[in-house]
Amino acid sequence: MESFKNLKETCYAANMELPKLDLVVYTFGNVSVVDRKQGVFAIKPSGVPYETLRPADIVIVDFDSQVVEGSLRPSSDTKTHAFLYRHWEHIGGICHTHSTYSVAWAQSQQDIPVFGTTHADHMTQDIPCAPPMADHLIAGDYEHNTGQQILDCFHTKGLSYQEMEMVLIGNHGPFTWGKDAEKAVYNSRVLEEIAKMAYLTRQINPNAPRLKDALIQKHYERKHGSGAYYGQGC
Amino acid sequence: MESFKNLKETCYAANMELPKLDLVVYTFGNVSVVDRKQGVFAIKPSGVPYETLRPADIVIVDFDSQVVEGSLRPSSDTKTHAFLYRHWEHIGGICHTHSTYSVAWAQSQQDIPVFGTTHADHMTQDIPCAPPMADHLIAGDYEHNTGQQILDCFHTKGLSYQEMEMVLIGNHGPFTWGKDAEKAVYNSRVLEEIAKMAYLTRQINPNAPRLKDALIQKHYERKHGSGAYYGQGC
Amino acid sequence: MESFKNLKETCYAANMELPKLDLVVYTFGNVSVVDRKQGVFAIKPSGVPYETLRPADIVIVDFDSQVVEGSLRPSSDTKTHAFLYRHWEHIGGICHTHSTYSVAWAQSQQDIPVFGTTHADHMTQDIPCAPPMADHLIAGDYEHNTGQQILDCFHTKGLSYQEMEMVLIGNHGPFTWGKDAEKAVYNSRVLEEIAKMAYLTRQINPNAPRLKDALIQKHYERKHGSGAYYGQGC
Amino acid sequence: MESFKNLKETCYAANMELPKLDLVVYTFGNVSVVDRKQGVFAIKPSGVPYETLRPADIVIVDFDSQVVEGSLRPSSDTKTHAFLYRHWEHIGGICHTHSTYSVAWAQSQQDIPVFGTTHADHMTQDIPCAPPMADHLIAGDYEHNTGQQILDCFHTKGLSYQEMEMVLIGNHGPFTWGKDAEKAVYNSRVLEEIAKMAYLTRQINPNAPRLKDALIQKHYERKHGSGAYYGQGC
């Protein structure tokens, strides 16, 4: 039982960032963190408010979404997390919220255009909005199919999950991921800021152009390219 | 006098949530909680700021809005609360605020369309906006008639108060309710968030479609249906 | 020197409410409070940040805006305050801010329409926006003329300063007043909330109608009429 | 090594204002402060979060952007700061953020019109938005060229850096400056407020006129002119 203690604490800490960053109200969100050696991931229990959440409440499940340890039911979105961990071997954490501006874009069923360098500092493409699923998929294994929906969206648009670490599920909200849970949460916060900036930009100038290619490449490269000089290189 | 001590404290605690959740400024709101066995409900006194409100200030009134205990005048909206408790036997608490985005939709005299799963996680219908009352009803027993206005709106639209636990009063603001005062307050906070998301959605995409029926049903069922798997089932 | 101690402390306390209520950044605002028996009023010194303001910094000036006590220069808006105290004998405090939504309406040179009961709970008319002054008045005794501009606006629109306790100066921002400094600050906070609600209402429904007369009268009367039943009657 | 202790602490304190003023999330911003006698400036290290930043982390660089003292890599925007210090001899501090409303205007590629006295209290001109750079300049010495872009923008528009202490870089975000780091940060906060007010003004009234010249001059002169009577004259 002690073997998952660190995993639970990491998962707990990442979940507790969400209310601090104003990304959730009540129980509207969840973060998971994977341990690939043991073939499990830790995830928030379903419907438990952040104010009362404790590290011991975190649920350990395997990649088939079966509970390995924990007395509570895992997040209702667990199968979507499991699907992504199975298919994307380089991600270490996943975050899902209903943050306000990200949801507004998802409900608008529109990609978020790359309007500026705040966006380009993190990725070179528009943030994709996956279209709503067909009715038989919704009625079927819904959360599993949500994972498939994300994969299909990335395939159709030719996106790499290692370069684009976020997606909007049409009419639902954002999923983000990263090398660990902390990065997944960071990406949710960044997405919400970019979503708000893009919203305001469109309101001020409905014809605001996408950022020019040279600037997209420059800002992405200085932070993520082989000659990157942003950050401390660690 | 001691018999209502718990009822007052529950009512006090629920009222004090409103400023914490940024749903009120000054005295713009009130929560009540009912004790059906004793045929009374507890409600905030009128015009008392939250900063100075004490549990002993809470007023106990009967279903005819007559004061049973308390030295202060009850909320000016007391008759609306009494009306709803009389007609809807399964509700335990009622909350009224002037929260910003909910009021904006009420002033726009528009229902809030179900644009996404945040909405569908809580109800399957658009959030109704009751039309303004006829002049003779306004000039008459106004707060009583506001209760009637809510009932008429639910009748006209074929809504169930146990499934749709909120309403906008046209040009005024929201009333929400639930099995207890805590749930009523929760519904006010959720309504404000949904109202903001719907506002932003319309600004980004004036032609944003309502959520498709399959998704409405799926999200509502997974949280509230017989096979619900959201939350801890308690 | 001790004679103005209470007046200064009242003025200080009212000024310190402004940053708490998110109505000002840095030095963008000022509150004054009058002592009509002594023929003076207390006002915030010019350009002093709220973080470092002390009660002893408050300046006492007479109705000709001459400093009676205090080592600092009074607010640059002092002559506007003096003008209003001279002409409106029943006001006890005045508040001026550059709060965001109120300024946006002032910069739009539009009255704020009465869209709902939050507005009607406080006044029955649209909140007036005074037009910009003629150039020779701006170049002249500007702050004195700002007072005249307010008076002219109320005269032209047939408004009573005892019923409408707020105004927008076109392209500048709001002035509010009341029986004391606390009420003047309260009115600034209420104005900002009404300004935000009206902004959102127009965005959702550009054709949103003004509140019907019966509701305007009802809400105003229940709070301020001879048979008022809102509040504790004290 | 002790010679730069004060410079580092001043720079640290100014940087720490940014999260307090809600102008940055994570590492999205940087402030520098110059010591012209020693020919160096202090600047935030690149990619270090504000929560963990310490005074000792601040990097000292010369006007050629070479590190003079410090074990961390300086901000990726260091060359832009160096360029401005070299060309504008009267500035003592520079601040760069990605604050939300300022970025939205930058992404809209529009100057912020002077709509009111909040703006005119600080400057008489529209806040300029520098156009995006040519591709070969982006691919070249980008941060150096960003400085040149600012200079060219001021030259083209006939602006003085001592009167207009801020600029928007098209598609990127704001740079502000002043006599010291504290003033530079102050200008970033003021810019964000003006940007939000101007945004709201345009939404309420798409045809809102610029402030008339007489008011622009009056407000600027009473704060900055030879006969200024705003503030305490120190």
From TrEMBL, chains A, B, C, D:
Keywords: Carbohydrate metabolism, Isomerase, Metal-binding, Zinc. GO terms for biological process: pentose catabolic process. The keyword Metal-binding applies. One of its GO terms (cellular component) is cytosol. Its cofactor is Zn(2+). Residues 9-199 form the Class II aldolase/adducin N-terminal domain. Its EC number is 5.1.3.4. Transmembrane segments: none annotated. It holds the Pfam family Aldolase_II. It catalyses: L-ribulose 5-phosphate = D-xylulose 5-phosphate. One of its GO terms (molecular function) is L-ribulose-phosphate 4-epimerase activity. The keyword tRNA-binding does not apply. InterPro entries: Aldolase_class_II_sugar_metab (IPR050197), Aldolase_II/adducin_N (IPR001303), Aldolase_II/adducin_N_sf (IPR036409). NCBIfam families: PRK08193.1. Belongs to the aldolase class II family. AraD/FucA subfamily. This is L-ribulose-5-phosphate 4-epimerase. It comes from Lunatimonas lonarensis.
